[in-house]
Every structure is written in C-alpha cells, then in structure tokens.
C-alpha cells in the first residue's frame, strides 16, 4: 500500500514497465512506417505489445483506484497542480485510445489481430478502406501527441527532481525508506 509520500511497489512496477513498453511501441511504430523490409515483423511485434499495454492500463487504473497516489505538495502552485493532474489523465486516455485505435484500424483494414498462441481477436470495426485511412491517420497523429506528452511528463519529473526538489520524482522513482 502506498504511503502518503510514495507510490507502492505495484504502482512503480506498472509505471516503469509501461513506460518502457510505450516508448518501444512509439519507436516500433516509426520503424513500421519507415521500413518496408522490417514492417511485417514490426507489426507482428507492435500488435500484441499494444494489447498488453491496454491490459496493463486497465490493471493500472484499477490499482490506482484501490491505492490512490500520494498527494502533490501543497507548495505546488495551483496551475501546475491542475496541469499535472490533466497531463496524467491525458496519458491514461492515450494508454487506452492508442491500442483501441490500432485494433480498430487493423479491423478496418481487413487485418486480423492475432495474439500469441494463435487466438484471433474480434474485429472492432468493419472492413472499410476509408475508415482504415481515417483511423490510421488518427493513430499516427495521436502517436505524435503521446510522444510529446511523454516528453512533457519527463520534463515535469526532472523539474521536480532537480529544481523543486519536493519529493514528487522520488515518490515514483524510489521505494520509501
């Protein structure tokens, strides 16, 4: 269970594991667009990893409801506190939206989403080239937005670690002593 100043072990594990997976997903996505030779292999990696991100996002949200995060420092200006809360909820929204958009895009393109073990997931959208194009564009634009938001999140974390030194970074980076 989280103390009043730190996230618990499960929250920290989910955070860092998902951070690594999401960054990998972004770079795999860029690689899929850039390389025709590696595209099939990268897609086969991207789809199940995206679904794992979706499952872990559900687990993370469930865990967060049961183990609320530590409060932000009272010394944090109200505008920064609101921006921090908004950015976290936008990150959660994108953790759900990106895999669902990718799944729907694959469905609209007529592609099956196959899990390891050859389980085929149901289509989220009808096969439709126009819908596929729209979903592909949305997935790409939101991917760039996700990356930008991650950069802001990292910048905020470093600001708390190096400038404010208020314990916000340590709450996620270190276990309580």
From TrEMBL:
Residues 6-173 form the Cytochrome b561 bacterial/Ni-hydrogenase domain. InterPro entries: Cyt_b561_bac/Ni-Hgenase, Cytochrome_b561_oxidase, Di-haem_cyt_TM. Signal peptide: none annotated. Its main location: membrane. The keyword Phosphoprotein does not apply. One of its GO terms (molecular function) is heme binding. Its cofactor is heme b. This is Cytochrome b.
């Amino acid at each position: 269970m989280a103390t009043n100043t730190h996230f618990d072990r499960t929250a920290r594990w989910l955070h860092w594991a998902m951070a690594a997976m999401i960054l990998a997903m972004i770079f795999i996505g860029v690689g899929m667009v850039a390389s025709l030779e590696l595209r099939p292999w990268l897609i086969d990696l991207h789809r199940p990893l995206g679904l794992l991100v979706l499952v872990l996002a559900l687990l993370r949200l469930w865990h967060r409801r049961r183990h609320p995060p530590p409060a932000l420092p009272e010394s944090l200006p109200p505008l920064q506190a609101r921006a921090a809360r908004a950015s976290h909820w936008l990150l959660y929204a994108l953790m759900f939206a990106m895999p669902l958009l990718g799944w729907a895009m694959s469905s609209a393109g007529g592609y099956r989403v196959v899990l390891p073990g050859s389980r085929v997931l149901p289509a989220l959208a009808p096969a439709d080239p126009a819908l596929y194009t729209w979903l592909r564009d949305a997935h790409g634009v939101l991917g760039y937005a996700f990356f930008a938001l991650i950069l802001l999140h990292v910048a905020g974390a470093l600001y708390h670690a190096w400038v404010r030194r208020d314990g916000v970074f340590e709450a996620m980076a270190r276990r309580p002593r």
